[in-house]
Specification:
The chain is α+β, with helices and mostly antiparallel strands. It is built from 12 helices and 11 strands. Among the domains are: about 30 residues; about 110 residues, no CATH class; about 100 residues, no CATH class.
Length: about 450
Amino acid sequence: MAQQQPPPGAQSGRPSPPPGAGPFPPGMQPGQQPTPEQIRAVQARIAAEAEKAGMTVPQFIERQKALAMQQQQGQQPSPEQVRQMQAQIAAEAEKAGLTVPQYVERLKAQAMQQQQMRQQQQQGAQPGKQVPIAPGPPKPEGIAVAKFLRSQDLKLRTCIFNDQRKDMFKVKRAIRALHSPAYEKARKKNPILPEVKDRVTAENTLKTLPLSMLALRVSKVDPHQGHNHGKKKRVKGLWTVKVEPQQEARDDYYYVFLYEGPQWKNKLYAAGALGVILAVVFFPLWPYHLRLGVWYLSMGLLGLLGLFFAMAIFRLILFLVTMFVTPPGFWLYPNLFEDVGFFDSFKPLWAWHEDEAAVKQRKKEERQKKKARREAKANGTFVKKDKSKQPAAATTEKPADPPSSSSSASEEPEISKPVTSSATGAEPIPKDGNVQAQQRNLAARVEETEDE
């Protein structure tokens, strides 16, 4: 029966140091047992370091043990371990039918490829990461996404890009379309469309467009950039845009379509234009009855054009006469030269002239109503439109006679309610025994569109 050996220090009567106590005090040999004074000094030093670290003594000792184990694991391999690894690599290279250097190079290439794949996956998962755009043919998934977005209502706006008219859309509407049930339905028919689960995947799907040069992020060109003057008033017209270097996908960013889609419509229009040109060129070869019909048609169009100019001159003379006889003047077909549709140009039949101050006030009220409707729509409420206001057909009131000399100068003329005559199909509204005539209305003017 083997006799149990006493612990170190038991024969000499000296206690052993606590585990994890660290190195012994200086001057002590590795095989020498510490004295009780040295053990107490080590314990006091451990207690002080544990107190500085905000831990108890057992917790500090456990941490020291863990650090020592980590240091042992990070040590260089022993020569025996190196020889074992070399033998294992040689055996695997022999199985693969390669030399050891060739096998090592293949392992390096595989490790590098795996690292690149991990980096690409991380870049694809983060919307802020940028991927360089490589020239080449568009990818099939990018073409599929472009076709789908072209078929959706993105509220496209026309802009000038490289001296050409292009369609521009906002990112938030494209993201909304990718999250719509229409995209899921299209994906069932065309599995090449990328899957969209959340915002990140939607942005990655949208980024397939710039990667394939099918759509690019753009911004408006400021012709006064760098000049020392204040902000100019917005001029109505088309945006001139430029490409941004960072192709990000934030909600307020704009993208311009470079993908035009199928060109069969343009080809059909070109063929039709070519046919019309050939028909005009070969007009002398037409049959006699066709040439006679074209002559009558041209004479009829010339007659209509002459009637139009005659009506324009007559309405101007009528306005000049009524401006002095019954101010503020009377217009026949007040919307004849306004920016409205063809049929709206002849509605209403007549109206009183409207001064500039009244036009500005009416436009201001219309803008306020549009703003209120937009805010109500954004809040999810419904605002009932004013049915009395109809484009190009509503009438306004004629200002009442100016106040008499007995009234004060600060008193403004009274405005009656809007009325119409039988010519416009509405019932007149009497006031004080008099029927007020209608005033010219320009409600059908196209206002300047506001930026979203």
